[in-house]
Amino acid sequence: MGLIPVIEPAVFIRRAVAGAAALLTCAVALSAEPFPSRAVTLLVPYPAGGTTDVMARALAQTLAKQFGQPVLVDNKGGAGGTVGATALARGPGDGYTIMLGGPSDQINAPAMMAKPPYDAARDFEPVGCVVRFPNVLVVNPALPVKSVAELVALAKKEPGKLNYASAGNGNSSHLSGELFAQTAGISVTHVPYRGNAPAVTDTIGGQTQMMFAANSSVLQFIKGGKLRALAVTSNTRVKELPNVPTLREAGVPIDIYSWGCVVVSSKAPADVVDKLNAALTKSLDDPAVSQAIEATGGEKYPTSRAEVKRFITSERTTWTNLIRSRNIHAD
Predict the structure, then answer these.
(1) What topology does CATH give the domain 40-132+259-325?
(2) For residues 93 and 106, what is the distance between their CA atoms, to the nearest angstrom?
């Protein structure tokens, strides 16, 4: 039987330290691998086929070209976008999962819940914005008003008598109506529908008298005389409706946009978020992304990391205060 070699304690310690150093060097080398070194997942917190999904798929293609890695679109719809957002909040936070979020999942739905599943301000880091969408205030042509001033005067004359349709409780069309009513000092009755199409249909039919809707969803009816446009909610007039004033021009000092901005887990490394912002900004020059934005009636909205953070913080303050002051709750 051979002799078992005896290793001096000092030698043993030196070898152990050398081995640990080698393992640490290997780990540092792996962690220093340039981002992204594998596929990225782009979460869409809404079902396939909607506006956000269309935007996300155009975005995924151009990001994949820049990254040299696949960008996989993953639809996780439900509960006003909070199902998908919860998945991001509870994920690994390494920056390999990003989400194209919007007002519902980032502000409205959580603010209306008694126990929201995440804290958007704490759990997410804004990367940058892609698009924003103005709404248009439309009325049934039978309503005897041809301007915002006349609409406000009528509503003040007959408080609560006018009904306004929305695509659902807590939807942008609902909250737009609430902010308009609050700012103009009028009382109107909210009628929520399950989706935008039936809300538009009933406004055309006269069951409701007015609504705030995305330009793209009502433009054909405005041009066909089935709806009358009184104002757009953007800070400048839109090219599709050049003769329709903004709300500010009409005497109601507010701007209202729906929007799509990319967010990531707040645990993601800062340098990864910087790379994502740069790629996102560059993606807005891609013709496919530009076409998708134009097709959905939106406008490009590139932002730096500081700008997107200020924007979402301001939006969160505006809409959370409105939801609380108007006592709006989730269905």
Answers:
(1) D-Maltodextrin-Binding Protein; domain 2 (3.40.190)
(2) 17
CA distance 218 to 241: 11
Retrieve residue 65's tokens.
Answer: 């070209």
d(CA 186, CA 204): 22
Closest CA to 295 of 48, 43, 47, 50: 50
Enumerate residues 6+ apart whose C-beta is below 8 A from 288: 58, 61, 62
Residue 27 has a pLDDT of 42
Give the β-pairing of 97-101 and 228-232: unpaired
Q: What is the CA radius of gyration of the chain?
A: 25
- The answer to whether the beta carbons of residues 140 and 298 sit under 8 Å apart is no
Contact between residue 46 and residue 84 where contact means Cβ atoms under 8 Å apart: yes
pLDDT number for residue 3: 45
Torsional class of 29: left (φ above 0), alpha (ψ -120 to 50), beta (otherwise): alpha
Mean pLDDT of 92-105: 97
Mind listing the pLDDT tens digit for each residue in 147-195? Answer: 999 999 999 999 999 999 999 999 999 999 999 999 999 999 999 999 9
Q: Assign 316 to helix, strand or coil.
A: helix
pTM here is 0.87
**Do the beta carbons of residue 324 and residue 244 sit within 8 Å?**
no
The CATH code of the domain at 134-232 is 3.40.190.10
Mean pLDDT of the chain: 92
